[in-house]
Amino acid sequence: MPTSPEVRALWELIEQRIAGGDHGAIDDQIWQRFGGEWAVMLTDLAGFSRQVARFGIVHFLQTIHQQTRALVPIIQQHGGALVKTEADSMLILFPTATAAVESGIAMQRACHALNATSRPEDEVMLCVGIGFGLLLKIGDTEVFGHEVNMASKLGEDIAVADEILVTPSAHAACAQIAGLEWEQQQTAYAGETICWRARYR
Q1: Residue extents of the structural domains in the chain
Q2: Closest to 82 measured CA to CA, from 42, 46, 114
Q3: What's the pTM?
Q4: What is the pLDDT of residues 9-40, one digit of tens each?
Q5: Which CATH class, in words, describes the domain spanning 35-200?
Q6: What is the largest CA-CA distance in the chain?
């Protein structure tokens, strides 16, 4: 399978690390070439696996198409870039934590509007997790970092339908957003004990 020059360059450096190269120097090269500060969003659809089991694969494809058609324009309006889609989950990068949260609110509102005219089995019930910090971005297809892992855990495993959960780093980086309040939530993942729930009107 073809890979981009960025992906090949990363794994060549990793091979040097495995072969006993200077870890510190190699790590510096990797961070200088691929590192940057971004907000990362992971989304998931609540109850999706049960819906697929009940209604079948064609229903799965329809729901994914509805989600993409409704939400990608909103992501782009907030300066975000869809990195990848895996099943019902989306991995998205934003330039700031504020842009990510504002986009998450707009995305959920779009889902509410879509669901108002949909059958119950066709509803798109969005769960959102957001992190912020130093990440490795490899071309346009891969993103790695602790905040990616945290956002994934929040969005895919902890958040429920219509919920936006953010890491402490993302919360600290957010500017004030009109109509938004924050509520601390307890988690237990990778040493993190607190996340923040966005409550908006």
Answers
A1: 35-200
A2: 42
A3: 0.90
A4: 999 999 999 999 899 999 999 999 999 999 99
A5: alpha beta
A6: 59
